[in-house]
Amino acid sequence: MNRPRIILDVDGVLADFVGHTLTLIGDLAPPGGREMFTSWDMVSVMSPDARARCAYGWRQPGWCATMPPLPEALSAVDRLGLRAEVVYATAPMVDAPHWMYERSKWLERVFAADPRSIVFAHDKAHVWGDVFVDDKPENIDGWALAHPSGIAALWDAPYNRDWKPKHGNATRVDRWASVFDLIPRS
Ligand SMILES: [Mg+2]
Fold it and tell me: 19 CA to middle of ligand 1, Å?
């Protein structure tokens, strides 16, 4: 019998892109920390100096490789692996030439990912599965439309609070227990 297949986004779901960026910009961070990033375009609330530091720092070799995982993600993925086949779907930062290499190695090192389970895609609707978890509203809307028999779950974050489901097979989750509840029982 086939196991259920769950697709996990990486940045914002497994990897703390926002926290790593706050560390990068240091004293240039806007007051209020991560709650300040209420728009997908996080640099929109930054000073010009902070934007410049991001534009440079995000693309430096080693930045992607040293991103911390989000709390609970490690144990959640461990437990998900007992119930489902885990696939990692992550968009490359295309103007950082080493990004995909570092992201692959990071997933293998931090999450013990099988390299065959790592997919790079800007349009994640190309990736099939039973459950899809991502923090970007457009990805959830696109995947839910393309996979009507699957379930798309938006991982809650300050920058996606305006989102409302456009499709009946899309929902919002703010904890891993809710993700587990979405996995079909075989
Ligand atoms: Mg993401």
Answer: 13
Alpha carbon 149 to its chain's center: 22
Query: Is residue 32 located within the same domain as residue 83?
Result: no
3-state helix, strand, coil in the chain (%, to 5): 45, 15, 40
Show the domain range for 47: 17-65
The pLDDT profile of the chain, 186 residues, written as one tens digit per residue, is: 589 999 999 999 999 999 999 999 999 998 888 888 998 888 888 999 999 999 999 999 999 999 999 999 999 999 999 999 999 999 998 889 899 999 999 999 999 999 999 999 999 999 999 999 999 999 999 999 999 999 999 999 999 999 999 999 999 999 999 999 999 986
Residue 11 CA to ligand 1 centre (angstroms): 4
Give backbone dihedrals phi and psi of 111, rounded to 5 degrees, phi first. -110, 5
- The total number of structural domains in the chain stands at 2
> Residue 144 C-alpha to ligand 1 middle, in angstroms?
16
CA 1 to ligand 1 center in whole angstroms: 31
Q: What is the 184 CA–ligand 1 centroid distance (Å)? A: 23
Query: What is the rounded distance in angstroms from the CA atom of residue 185 to the CA atom of residue 110?
Result: 28
User: Ligand 1 mean position to 15 CA, how many Å?
Assistant: 8
Do 168 and 135 share a domain, yes or no?
yes
